[in-house]
Amino acid sequence: MVAFSHLAVALSAVAGSLAAPAAVADPSVPDFELNGDHLMRRQDYNQNYKTSGNVNFSPTNNGYSVQFSNAGDFVVGKGWRTGTTRNINFQGQTNPTSGTVLVSVYGWTTNPLIEYYIQEYTSNGAGSAQGQKVGSVTCDGSVYDIWKHQQVNKPSIQGTSTFWQYISNRQSKRPGSGTVTTKCHFDAWAKLGLNLGQHNYQTLATEGWGNAGGSSQYTISG
């Protein structure tokens, strides 16, 4: 497994040769929506990045779909320009046919600068897991292994920097529907001394590398 870097305001990802995209605000989507009795921030970020291959990304107001083939490195997804301890509900499916494909909750914080993954699914091996395994936590019906990894002089949302990656890697993989209780992970990380800072963006993302092929489709709320 080879560590990889994200570009510009995008990201440095955690595994394979993958690089993630910048999150782009969607000006056509209002900031908030009413869900029952709760006022929630609408999804207002699109991720769309690739280096090679065929990647057809179609964002919607409440999710996205993507078809891909012969992809050397791509990340697409939908989310929020400000992360928080929201419960992220996703409904859909990922169907890989080749390469390595991930589905994760992905985000950044500043002060400290942290890149984080809550990996729900990988088609091949450990996916995003690398560095040092520091513990585990049970959230949403599965044990997750917790990893940390330092990126040295790599691109980040604050330019070339040295920063830590925090990774929760779900043992019971789910390419389909579920809920990610982000607070469960954030609290577990804090107990291990893995402290987050001020939240930047947060997405549900499909990633792939190594001549990745397949498709993903999700609707998202949170």
From TrEMBL:
One of the GO BP terms on file: xylan catabolic process
Membrane-spanning residues: none
InterPro entries recorded: ConA-like_dom_sf (IPR013320), GH11/12 (IPR013319), GH11_dom (IPR033123), Glyco_hydro_11 (IPR001137)
Active site: E115, E207
Enzyme class: hydrolase
Sequence similarity: Belongs to the glycosyl hydrolase 11 (cellulase G) family.
Name of the protein this chain belongs to: Endo-1,4-beta-xylanase
Species per Swiss-Prot/TrEMBL record: Periconia macrospinosa
